[in-house]
Amino acid sequence: MRRAVLLLMVVFSSLIGFAQITIIGRNVLNGNPVNFGKLYVYGDGKLTYTLNTSKQSEFMIQLDFGRVYKVFIQHPSSPLMHFEVNATTIPADKYVYRMTYEFQAELADKWDEDLDTTVYKNPFHRVVFNGINQMVADTAYNVEFNKHKLKKNMPGFAAGQTGDNNILVGKISSPDFPELSLYPVQIECLSSKREIIRTLSSDRLGTFAFCSKKNSGIFSLRLMLSDSSLSGKIIRIYNNKTELLFEGKVTGNTCIWELGTKGIEPLVDNSYEAHVGAKIVMSSQKEKRFFTERTVYLLNKRYTVLDKTTTNLLGAFVFSDIQPDNTYYIAIDRTEVNRGEKADILNKDDKFVGTLDTVMGDKLIYKISSRYPVSYNRLLVAENELQMDVKATIFGDNINNPIGHLKIILLNDAYEPIDSVITDDFGSFKFKYLPFLKRFYLDADNSDNMLDVFRNILIYSNDENLIKIMTHQKGKKFTYRPVSTEILLMREVEIEDPWLKLMDEKENQLVGIDSVDNKLIVENIHFENNKYELNRQAKETLDKIILVLNAQKHLRIEIGAHTDSKGSEEENLKLSQQRAKAVYSYIISAGVDASRLVSKGYGESKPLIVCNEKRPCSESDHAKNRRIEFKIINNTKAK
């Protein structure tokens, strides 16, 4: 868009000098530029002028201070939409400024069944004065609008509204076989005549979720196992709140749960959402690099942008509100990929998932389907595998009064304090690497009445967008109960990764880099039985560690290999030494100085799970004991 904008600036340069506000935009639909759009500009309810973009997608609009403008965009592929520019809050002493606002006007696809076109009676985008010298996006409004443009109670819909469909959710578990939830299990939805209405599979979290009509005719559920090894065992179904719903006994290789008089009602959970997460690594013949602090998009099956986020220092991202029975696309901008590079997607365990190599408009995309859990299991992330940062800035009355040295307390949804921090001189605060919370609250310590000099407390996001204005009562403690939209503006969700903190230079300086000495990081680097050759997934994990070591050259690590208790102690010790050496050699081959690494094989001497005759190890226990540990040692920066 930048090239087109520069051209517009040249063409209209003689006119800009007379404009107080210049809006430069580009009409796009599903990432593709849209030509022949018509724009109608209304100022305080009166038609000011019209504009036809003709054979281009770009447009330029000039506006005066002191009015509210509605700009309607008309195109055959989109419902009638409009954006709003509020120029009434600009004080007269700011009229000397010439303000330019640039944005991409994302038109709605009127054939997209996920979109609720009735919401476009409201502005799809709002522009406001930032209180200093420029027009900016009203982020809180725009995020809230995008949340509500999707229909409800259908695949991809957000929670809270009703319709003819429900989301049904259950979690399978067995007291006799705890590992059951780790394996995909086939479940059949049966009619009163035992006819199969629907077949689905549980995901890697033991959850099955699907969309169904309220009067679906489902009378029972039948679980199908691959063999009869669990015959006679109990299998249970819980809801998403871990409440027991149904219990049945396996007969042969099947288990049937009769839904009873309540039918599917106990399974209904229209607030259900899943999370998908991954990391993107850019690779070429010469090098690999994290796709760090770049934009990643979530698209629906018609390529409409549902959400977007920014990757972290390890190139990782998370998308929430993934609904069952739906098709999604992960996407990045094509311009982010250099010549000779490819964008690989790795899951949370650093396993290769796929490549963003399909072109759609100005994006590269990768398809995932929540209808088939087996295919998207690799990207599915549990809430206990997530972490979050919470950050914002606090001002008193206006942005000229940042409130520094204020103690902020973070509380969970049970109003229990979980962390506290002091705002800096600029009124900013940040909580880092916290367990994932859907909801949280903020309190501020006003014991010395430092807030009482202000009438209003302003909460801004770190990208300088206003989130909330709150009236402060003197002598009262400041308490902030953000709604879901405001939480999204303050919260950044990430896949939990112990290497992430080591990559965060600012965090290391804050807590003291030496505090991570002797830190143990366990990685799921798997080897074939009695072998020590590295497979592809192991190399992907080690490539991540190599990138961390190259970025933080002061780090030294010990590579410790551990085996299970199968075989003799002598054989296990030798095998662990060979595996540690294989990891060591691979990292050295990538150019990491050998003096920064130590390799040790511990055999079966330090199991995570101790087994004996009374408590024999299961295969799952043995797998946990077979591990590679990385210990940070002598963590001092090179001088």
Quickly list its features.
single chain, 639 residues, mainly beta, Immunoglobulin-like, Lipoxygenase-1, 5 domains, 6-stranded mixed sheet, 6-stranded antiparallel sheet, 14% helix, 39% strand
Layout of secondary structure:
Layout: H1 2-11, H2 13-16, E1 21-29, E2 32-33, E3 38-43, E4 46-52, E5 58-63, E6 68-75, E7 78-86, E8 99-106, E9 125-129, E10 135-137, H3 139-148, E11 165-173, E12 186-190, E13 196-201, E14 207-213, E15 220-224, E16 234-238, E17 244-249, E18 254-258, E19 274-283, E20 288-290, E21 295-299, E22 305-310, E23 316-322, E24 327-333, E25 342-346, E26 352-355, E27 358-360, E28 363-369, H4 373-376, E29 380-381, E30 386-396, E31 407-411, E32 417-422, E33 428-435, E34 441-444, E35 456-460, E36 466-471, E37 478-480, H5 484-490, E38 491-495, H6 498-503, H7 505-511, E39 520-523, H8 536-551, E40 556-562, H9 569-589, E41 597-603, H10 619-625, E42 627-633
Parallel strand pairs: 1-8, 7-9, 40-41
Antiparallel strand pairs: 1-2, 1-5, 3-4, 3-6, 6-7, 9-10, 11-14, 11-16, 12-13, 12-15, 15-18, 16-17, 19-20, 19-23, 19-25, 19-29, 21-22, 21-24, 24-28, 25-26, 27-28, 30-33, 30-35, 30-38, 31-32, 31-34, 34-37, 35-36, 39-42, 40-42
Number of E strands: 42
How many helices? The count is 10
Strand content: 35-45%
Give unreliable regions as ranges: 5-17, 153-162, 509-513
The CATH topology annotation of the largest domain reads as Immunoglobulin-like
